[in-house]
Specification:
By secondary structure, this protein is mainly alpha-helical. Helix content is about 85%, strand content about 0%. It has a domain at about 500-568: Winged helix-like DNA-binding domain superfamily/Winged helix DNA-binding domain (Arc Repressor Mutant, subunit A, Orthogonal Bundle), CATH 1.10.10.10. The protein has helices at about 10-15, 20-45, 55-60, 65-80, 85-100, 105-125, 125-140, 145-160, 165-180, 185-205, 205-220, 225-245, 245-260, 265-285, 285-300, 305-460, 465-480, 485-495, 500-505, 515-525, 530-535, 540-550, 560-565. It is rod-shaped, with a radius of gyration of 72 Å. Mean pLDDT is about 75; it is low at about 1-65. It comes from Dyadobacter jejuensis.
């Protein structure tokens, strides 16, 4: 501690041999009036938590470490976010909010608490949500937004009641009572403080019980019912003493000293103020040290011991200046830390945006690649399907072609068989034709011989045989000229030589039946003698018949009749 002052006892002041001169007394009185003007605001600052919030025990022990603690909490929060642990990150947001609240940075504190509130609501953690709502209510209260503070406290009370957290319920009752006290709604303040007292007593939370006793004493002090105020402050004092809550005891001792001073018991108030001062010095509570010095200065002033009053008020002002300096340094460090964190957040946000854009680009590239792969897969699949279909179609064509080939082969076989049959039939018909022709030749030859003999007999002029022989010769001659044999011959001939006569008529339409017979016999490569027998004429007559036939067929000089007929 930079300031080492000896605590001046009242006895030392009384027995002091110092007798100030008139000039010294005037100077002391002027200085006293100047310092006394600062007593009221100093005390107001210390007594009123609404105007200058006190730093928590942890923060008070480490004013210079608040910025480092904030950096550590921010780092832990970032790690929790990276590990995708929402409840852990919300916990660090709440701790940062509490730290910023206790160091007087209310907007930043509220921002962190609101972010934690959103996470707790999403995760449905009622108990942690209620604790966070309690802190938000305190921030709104310190920011002089009582309606919002009450709203937060009411919701926190509902949540604590749902999870049956009686300690949390008791704390909210106490805060609501304190809020109503500052609004001078003392009936409501008493109701909630007594509810808080009952809840703390039910769970055996004696530190909370002592705090509620202190709150009740504060209400009675506001109402200037000092006996009741002293009663509750005294109960808080004995309970803290019994449970060893020495830090809380400092404020209770100061309150007891205030009540005694306000009731004119100045020397008794000095006793409690000195106890509070000693305990504050032991616990290094700078706020309480400054407050105790200020209370001592007031008491000595009321005892008309202005030199001692001046001395203690000067000490109070020194501590106040030290606190202000330390708080200013802390505020500067915290502001710098907040600025650094803000700059880092901006940088992180930019990097996050860049990473997001990069991820988006990578995702887009990935999607494009995936689409290309899908398209390539589809193309390959379609190509394979096309090839497969082509193979199937090719196989089908091959099958059809094979079937056609088989059908063609079958048709060829059938045609071959048919041709073979036709050849056999042709050979058969040719044999039949040849046989028939030979038969006709033989018959006609026999008939011709008989006719010749008959003609000879007729020439012998036997009267008795002549008539009969003439009749027989006519009958034979008719037989040789019989058209039925030629029709039968023609039918067999056309079976062997199909459409021959039709094609022949295309060459000339003036051919007679005798011409056709001669041409058929020439087609069969018969000799002139056989043709003469079949036609029933002499070979000389046959040669004569050939000449008009050549003309009818429009044959040129030197062109062979037999070759022409064979070519048809």
């Amino acid at each position: 501690m930079p300031f080492l002052y000896k605590i001046i006892d009242q006895s030392e002041l009384v027995s002091s041999p110092m007798k100030p001169t008139k000039l010294a007394l005037i100077i002391c009185r002027v200085l006293w009036l100047v310092l006394l003007a600062g007593i009221t605001p100093v005390k107001a600052q210390i007594e009123s938590p609404d105007k200058s919030p006190k730093i928590s025990e942890n923060m008070a022990a480490s004013f210079g470490n608040a910025d480092s603690l904030l950096r550590g909490l921010k780092l832990a929060y970032n790690q929790a976010v990276q590990q995708n642990d929402p409840l852990e990150s919300a916990g660090y947001l709440k701790k940062m909010g509490k730290l910023l609240f206790e160091t007087g940075h209310y907007p930043q504190a509220l921002d962190n608490l609101l972010r934690a509130d959103e996470i707790y609501r999403k995760k449905g953690n009622t108990d942690l949500l209620a604790t966070n709502l309690n802190l938000m209510g305190q921030v709104y209260y310190r920011s002089r937004q009582s309606s919002l503070a009450r709203k937060m406290f009411d919701e926190a009370l509902t949540k604590f009641t749902q999870v049956q957290n009686l300690t949390g319920v008791a704390e909210i009752y106490g805060r609501l009572g304190h809020l109503y006290e500052k609004e001078q709604a003392y009936d409501s303040a008493f109701i909630f403080q007594h509810k808080a007292l009952a809840s703390y007593q039910k769970v055996g939370q004696y530190e909370g019980v002592a705090k509620i006793y202190e709150n009740l004493g504060s209400i009675f002090e506001d109402l200037e019912t000092y006996d009741s105020a002293f009663y509750y402050f005294n109960k808080a004092y004995h309970l803290n003493e019994k449970k060893g809550h020495m830090k809380a005891q400092i404020e209770v001792l100061n309150n007891l000293g205030d009540i005694l001073r306000k009731t004119g018991k100045y020397r008794q108030s000095l006793e409690f103020s000195r106890k509070a001062l000693k305990l504050a010095i032991d616990k290094k509570e700078h706020y309480q040290i400054s407050g105790a010095y200020n209370d001592l200065g007031k008491a000595y002033n009321l005892l008309n011991q202005n030199d001692s009053a001046y001395y203690y008020v000067a000490l109070s002002r020194s501590y106040e200046n030290q606190i202000y300096s330390e708080e200013s340094n802390m505020q500067i460090a915290m502001l710098k830390t907040l600025y650094d964190i803000g700059q880092k957040d901006v940088m992180i946000e930019k990097l996050t945006q860049q990473q997001t854009v990069q991820n988006l680009i990578m995702m887009t590239v990935g999607v494009v690649i995936l689409l290309l792969l899908i398209v390539a897969g589809l193309v390959i699949s379609r190509q394979r399907l096309k090839i497969k279909n082509e193979q199937i179609l090719h196989e089908q064509k091959n099958s059809v072609l094979q079937a056609k080939n088989e059908l063609i082969e079958a048709e060829l076989k059938n045609k071959t068989l048919e041709e073979s049959n036709l050849k056999q039939q042709l050979e058969t018909k040719s044999v039949e034709l040849s046989s028939y022709t030979l038969h006709v030749i033989r018959k006609n030859q026999i008939l011709a011989d008989i006719l010749s003999k008959l003609n000879e007999l007729v020439k012998e002029d036997r009267r008795d045989q002549k008539k009969q022989m003439k009749a027989l010769a006519g009958q034979i001659s008719d037989s040789l000229q019989d058209e039925r044999h030629w029709e039968e011959f023609r039918s067999i001939f056309e079976q062997v030589h199909q459409s021959f006569f039709d094609k022949l008529k295309e060459q000339s339409d003036s051919l007679t039946s005798n011409d056709l017979r001669l041409i058929a016999l020439i087609k069969m490569n018969m000799t002139s003698g056989d043709m003469a027998i079949l036609l029933g004429i002499s070979q000389d007559s046959l040669r004569v018949v050939r000449h008009p036939l050549r003309k009818k067929l429009n044959l040129q000089q030197g062109e062979n009749l037999s070759n022409f007929i064979q070519s048809i």
